[in-house]
Every structure is written in structure tokens, then in C-alpha cells.
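#data-curation
PF: Archiving a pair of folding outputs for the training set. Convention for this channel: one message per protein, sequence first, C-alpha cells after, nothing in between. First:
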Amino acid sequence: MTDRADTQALLRLVTWMSPAFPVGAFSYSGGLEQAVHDGLVTDAPGLARWLQVLVEHGSSWNDAVLLAESYRACGEPLRLAEVRQLAEALAGSRERHMETMLQGEAFLTAAAHWPHPGLETLTGAVAYPVAVGAVAGSHRTGLEPALAAYLHSTVSNLVSVAIRCGVMGQTNGVGVLAELEPIIAGTAVRACASTLDDLGSAAITADISALRHETLHSRLFRS
């Protein structure tokens, strides 16, 4: 891409992954609220470790693999339909299913301001990483930047969740983002070379927290 095209792609990714983009990400914690309630995450270092596991070995890694496959499949409707079905099937709990499907649908609705013929068949409920990957692929943003932006957005949202749950203040939250920067960058590079065979999660405690959140008696977040 030319410098101008690079800048345009960057601006689109910044916009799509912005907290202001209307996907409702602020409403979801992916089980982090339960982890805070259970005393599993109590401070900034603990949050950094939790997020690192998610990005390298947990649900965020799976999202990165699905995004990469969707990016590559954006011009192949049948291939994209297959990854779309797989992504929905991989949701590990009722709330995680709600989280990824509603955010994906909302993302596609908002991204319609950047129309592309290849996205006409991608309507309705679509898992969030599939929606982002397909849109980014259609607009040729570059796969690695799209992955980095998606993972950074996910981590940033969870840092915000932790702040609202009283785990730490904003200054320490920014510190967590700085600490995780090389983790996000490295995972984006690794996901670029991934295939669907690389799907898999070893973040068992996080998965259990997402399940247990469904019965949390008083909560701020929908997942």
C-alpha cells in the first residue's frame, strides 16, 4: 500500500476498534467480573497475568485465529461461512455466546458506513472476530495491524472493566497496557501465520469464571 493508503487503513482500524464504536463492548467482561469477585484478580500485576494468558493461550488467542482466517476468507463466501459457523460453535457459555454474537452484529451494522460488495452476504448474527476479520480483509487494512488493533481493543476494554470493578486506578491501568504491548504485538505476528488447526484454549480458570458469571447475584456487566 502507498503511504496514503496505509494512513487510511490505520484510521479505519482506529475508528473500528475505538471505545466509541457502537458495539457495546463496555457492557461485557468475559468473566473478569467473576474473577474479581472470587479474588482471582486483585491488583494490576494480577490483571496483567490474567490478560496475558487470555491473549496467548485463551479466548483472545482463539479470536485472533478466527479473525485471521476470516480476513483471508473475505473473498470466498463458502470459506467465510464455515469459519462463521465454527466461531459461533466455539462460544464456551451462554453469556460468551451472547457477547461475541451481539458485538459482531453491532460491528457489521456500524461498519456499513464503509460499504464493500464482498460483505453483502455477511448479515445477521456473526461472531465478533469474524465480523472484524471480514471487514478488515475486504478493505485490505493489513492482517497484522488488524490483529494488533483487535487484541489491543480487547485488552483495553478488560482493563477498563478492572478499573470499574475497583481493582486499580487509571494510572495502573495504563501501566498494564504498556506491559502487555509486546505480548499483543507478538501474538498478532503469531496469529498471522496461524490456521484453524491452531485453535485451542488453555485458560481453564478464565473459562470457568465466564461460566460462573451467569449466576453472579449482583453484577455490573453482561458477561
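PF: Second:
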Amino acid sequence: MDKEGRMTQVQPMQCVSSAELTRNFGAWQDRAARGPLVVTHHGRPRCVLLAADAYAQFSRSDVQESESAVDHALLSERIDVGFVVLDKSLRMQELNTLASVMLGRSRDRLIGTSILDLLPRLAEDPYHTQIRRVLRSAAPARFSLLGQDERSIHVHAFPWPTGMALTLQSVSSEDEAENELARARALFAALETHGNIGTAQLTVRASIAEVDESFASIVGIAPDRLVGARVTDLFAMASRDPVSAALEKVMGGGKVEALDACLLVDGGDRPRRIALASWKEGYGIGGAMMVLHGPA
């Protein structure tokens, strides 16, 4: 199409034999100034004669592209997360060293491999749905899933010119502990809001370290008076041995214990359902949590 919007015919690339080029080099170099000229030998293309300014522009573009690729590779190696570039069929095109370590194979063996072969849970919902949404609508996605070593991996998926890219961040034991604590806090807050369920944090010696308002209301004692007391003292004599035995099992690393016991409330016995679970502190048991069900 010319400047006025009219269709023009595309001219085929012109060829010249090497013998003819040698005989009339001056004329043919003038022709090469107007566009690439294919030089043939015995009828087969051997090389292309290109004007100096066209070559300089081509070379400069090639160098810039190479420098950009080098900069990208250096940057991907400096970030502290695994970085993977996928095509639209989810096959790996590029990845940094950390990603290859996390996926358990060398970079050469991973190139061209589907990410689903290394992280098969990505093929399951809801992960696969989110991955496809990134490719379809260019909307980024964040989620966590279990890797091959059953450790959690934080995944950030986002659009990339060739398809999509992922950053992979392995969740450390400290992160897991922090997440577990956050989940526990949310659970206890929900239980306290429930009103008919109380929670208490116990030390390894079975004394009360902390209680919520619901627990204090169920046993009929103010929270500040409960802290430091032996939890077994809240129960009737007949229930103290079963409660102590359940606490001993839990503190020893056993499973969650649940039992019926009688609380001493207002000078009388009140049957209540309780549950006990240990919590870890560092490498050992730090204490236990007691959940107490209030009156119906």
C-alpha cells in the first residue's frame, strides 16, 4: 500500500549470479542500495548483498535484542524466587537456577517440559481454572499448593509475551508456623464470638495461661482469677482423674482428646463437653488448648 492508501504489488527479491556480480559490480552495488540482493552460485542462493546503512540498522537491532536477553537472564538470577516462563501450552521456555532446584531437575532437562508434569496439582481445580484465566484474560493470580516434597509453594502467575510467567516461593518452616498461628487466632476469635464455646491456653504444667471471655463466663470465674490456676481444679473430684489422664496424653504428643466432665459451677456439678489439643513451641510441646462447650 502506498502513501495514498492504494494497493501496490510486492516485488520479489532480485537475484544475481556471482559471475555477473563480478563483471558489473558497480551497477549491482547501486542496485543493492535500493534493497537486498541475493547472490547465487550455480543457481543456488549463497549470500545477500545489503546496503551499509541497512546492515547497520539490522546489526544495531540485533545487538539491542541480545543485550535485552542478557539483562533479563541476569535479573532472573538475582531475584530470590523461582522464575519460570511458559508458552500457551504451559511448556517451560525459560527458568532461573532457583526454579530448577525447586523443581528437582537441571535447566536443560526442564526446557520444553510441561509445568503440569512437575507440579501435577496445577491440573486440578481451582488451580487450573486460575492458570487458564491468566492466559485468557491476562489477569494475574496468586495461590499456594503442595510441591513434590509436600511442602507449600506460593505461586504468582501473570501474563508474559509468549504466554505466562510464574514465580515460585517455597514456604519455610517459620512461614508455616506463622500461618498456623494466624489460623489458630482466627479460629479462637470465631469461637469466642460464638459465645457458647470457650477456649483456654494451658501451660505444660496444666495451669491456665490465658482464657477468653466465653470460657470465664461458662465456669463463672473472672479471667484474671483464672490465670495461673490449675485447670483440673475447675472440675468435680470424679472428673479430675479423667481430665488429668487426657491432658497427659495430649502433652505427650498424642492426638486430640475429647471427653465429658463435670465443672464446679455455683457450688454444683455441671456436665460439660471438653476437647484438648497440644500446640508446639520450637521443637517440643509448649502446652495445650482446651475448648469448653457451654450450656445448651
